[in-house]
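A favour, since you know our structure tokens better than I do. It will help me judge whether the discrete encoding reads sensibly. The space below this message is yours for that.
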Amino acid sequence: MGTPAEGVDPDTLDVWADPATERLFTPATTITFLRTIASVTLSGLAIHQSSLTLLVVGLVVYWAGDSLDGQVARRLHHETRIGAVIDIFADRFCSAAFYFGLAWLYPEFTVPVLIYLAEFMVIDCYLSIAFLHWRIRSPNYFYVIDHRVWVLNWSHPGKAVNSALFAVLLLVCNAGWLGAWAEGAAPWIGGVIASCLLVFKCWGLSELFRIGLPLPEARGHASGRPEHPVGRGPDHAPGRGATT
């Protein structure tokens, strides 16, 4: 079973999804759609024009928009599971556009980029959408399921290390700000870091399986079994047969 943060009582927290509030279009999801279109368009133009500047601008738009849509969702109390999933997939689209652009401009980064995308778009994507097995609104509240997994993946430091750090590292090394040795070794450094992230995320996946992914409660079947009502939020805390 998972281990919530020390002193956290899941029953008292405003982290549980409410089906009545779920909808596709909110101010936050609108920002998500707009920042994704803008970021991917800039990355596409960067590839077409072979412009590192446009590529970096596209990355900044992605990061700024990703922060903004989350802030808007929380401040306006518009956090939804639909919005969380859209945000997760939009992040991968923006990241893929940026990294493909980077590999196009600097072919020496192709191997570390492919390793990183395998980690971010497959392993980390699965980890991120696994929150749907519980009735929390987004991965941001996974600490009520397992605190350690949340800290390493969805706390602010965890997100920075898992996503932003790799892009910054490649750009800084390529710019030669750390010296000529770093510029020459950038593909190797990137490959090692991407491989470490891949191993780390595989460990995170094993931790998720250790916690155990709860199955949905049985609903009405042809056998005539009665439909079981879906429990409310706190009933989906660890150890209570949490389900979606």
Observations:
- The chain is about 60% helix and 0% strand.
- The CA atoms of residues 113 and 194 lie 8 Å apart.
